[in-house]
Input
Amino acid sequence: QVQLVESGGGLVQAGGSLRLSCAASGRAFSFQDMGWFRQAPGKEREFVAEVVWRSGLTSYADSVRGRFTISRDSAKNTVFLQMTSLKPEDTGVYLCGGALFSGRYNYWGQGTQVTVSS
Output
């Protein structure tokens, strides 16, 4: 059984920073990719960033590139999202996802709320 547990969300003023963590257990070592997605009220879930577990290659949504950094700690099966220069439009529930096959996310955490005030 795979479990993904996020932490690190909260309330921050525009321009501030937050660091999210996602700890994976169970079959996590089988993930090809791990990523972060977000969902704002009334909107669909959108891709934020992902990392290819073995190689460490990363990719980002255009809206966060240059402000957010995804990283991983392979020894601890943990992925991080360092968010800087936060904007009110970054507000939403941030979900950690795991993909057993590249690009196919079918394991999800419960989500952590990020609220950026103007």
Observations:
- The chain has a mean pLDDT of 95.
- The first strand starts at residue 3 and ends at 7.
- Residues 90 and 114 are 8 Å apart (CA to CA).
- The radius of gyration is 13 Å.
